[in-house]
Amino acid sequence: MSDHHHKETFVTKYIFSQDHKMISKQFLVTGMFMGIIAVLMSMLFRLQLAWPDTSFSIVEAFLGRHQTDGIMSPDIYLALVTIHGTIMVFFVLTAGLSGTFSNLLIPLQIGARDMASGFLNMISYWLFFLSSVIMVISLFVEAGPASAGWTIYPPLSALPQAIPGSGAGMTLWLVSMSIFIASSLIGALNYIVTVLNLRTKGMKMTRLPLTIWAFFITAIIGVVSFPVLLSAALLLVFDRSFGTSFYLSDIFISGEVLHYQGGSPVLFEHLFWFLGHPEVYIVLLPALGITSEIISTNSRKPIFGYRAMVMSIMAIAFLSTIVWGHHMFISGMNPFLGSVFTFTTLLIAIPSAVKAFNYVTTLWKGNLQLNPAMLFSIGLVSTFVTGGLTGLVLGDSALDINIHDTYFVVAHFHLVMGVSAIFGMYAGIYHWFPKMYGRMMNKTMGYWHFWITIICSYGVFWPMHFIGLAGLPRRYYSNTAFPMFNDLADINVVITIFALVGGAAQIIFLANYFISIYRGEKATQNPWKSNTLEWTTPVEHIHGNWPGKLPEVHRWAYDYSKRVDASDDDSDYLHGQDYVPQTTPLLEGEEPS
């Protein structure tokens, strides 16, 4: 396949491409476009929360008929919150991490020409693109987009007549998500088969970079849990369109008794959260894998506890499938069952803590190269730890009852999942941009982007913990009807100012990204002096990755600052440099990794 250089047209190279490197860029650019929409939505509803009943011309410009005199309606507020959450969780974080970096790195880091099936890889992207288009179209339907929250709990989502957002917008949401799940499953199966079957000679599982372990285990979680969400969505479609009662029972609307009986909305909660909680790790694990690679490379040290890191990824994957009930402590579940979910939830803190400890230990006394990718990786460790600590509070059923559905929950999952995952995505883009485009991103703009983003992230979500502890409920359009929350109004203003500044700071990244594609400094073959196989490929992309035969692997991915034995104190680095690529044969007497 290395001599497979058939003439490609514009369409086969850039649109219906089967090259994993091009498909990764398609996922990334589509995810970035969806991210812009989601961030704009969050800025609009933050304006409403900070200054309720105030007229804004920008609201009028963006929302059109869904506002009166520049003040958004309560229905569209709920819709913005719903679609913001949906896009960020599924279309930005899942696609921006798994879709982009699994596609880019799996073949390159295991020494393969491409994915196991280039055609299925292309189908996976175009299904994702189609689902993105349908989700965007849902914003423009007459009654408004889905507005039952990103968790779309029935009966609001099951009864088209319940609220305006339960009509055509909700139907389009379900269609979009069903197509998205099909895309994710096809992609995940492709990733699993590629890692198991296409590793180059010498690339044992114990020599895989931690990025590949993370992508591989993430794909397995997706195959296990995504079909459950698909079944939940299909049953919801039956309830909405075919008169079934899977989730509905004894419903009254405007005094009218509906014919539904025998169903339970709690069934939907179980099905949704069986995907919903593993989804946290479908988003987080790729970010953590990327961070492992970047921290080791830029500390110029071997990653601390490689096998412990692999075992912690596996433990997180297993435990993530048996903790879903901690989202449902106030759903009326048996207290004994609640205590079981409390136990498994607190248990998952152990492998998470192992990862945080190993990152800190790798950084300790390292020769740190503080480029933008490294800063975002360290930022991820920070938000992962601070957000994770509040998870211990929410994981305890007795404590969770007091702060369930308050801003404390919003603060927790945005820090531990949202901000951490986005930091991992930014770190990966800054680190592998030279491999994607053959050019370097601007460092100065990267530094500005990082510092403004991390300050604003904490500025938004740190105060939310306190207003949550004070009892402020999430998803409320306005809190002015509750005098007990008047003292918290100023905090909401501060949060919104940080949110607006942080959102605007992403323009720096977008400018840096798109300008650097054409005008960035040209990259060398291995700009970070890294050990993994992707940096042995030519800077100019070819379909097949390596022009000749595939590389052969002789060692693990983290031989940094490896010294030879010497009689004097001035012992030299192995091979005269502080990194040893995986393709470098072992020296006589050197222990194999």
Automatic annotation (TrEMBL):
Region span, Disordered: 568-593
Family recorded in the similarity comment: Belongs to the heme-copper respiratory oxidase family.
Keywords: Electron transport, Heme, Iron, Membrane, Metal-binding, Respiratory chain, Transmembrane, Transmembrane helix, Transport
Full protein name: Cytochrome c oxidase subunit 1
Domain of life from the UniProt record: Bacteria
Topological relation to the membrane, as annotated: Multi-pass membrane protein
Membrane spanning residue stretches: 27-47, 76-106, 118-141, 172-198, 210-238, 271-292, 304-324, 336-361, 373-395, 407-429, 450-471, 491-515
Protein location: Membrane
Gene3D superfamilies: Cytochrome c oxidase-like, subunit I domain
GO biological process, one term: respiratory electron transport chain
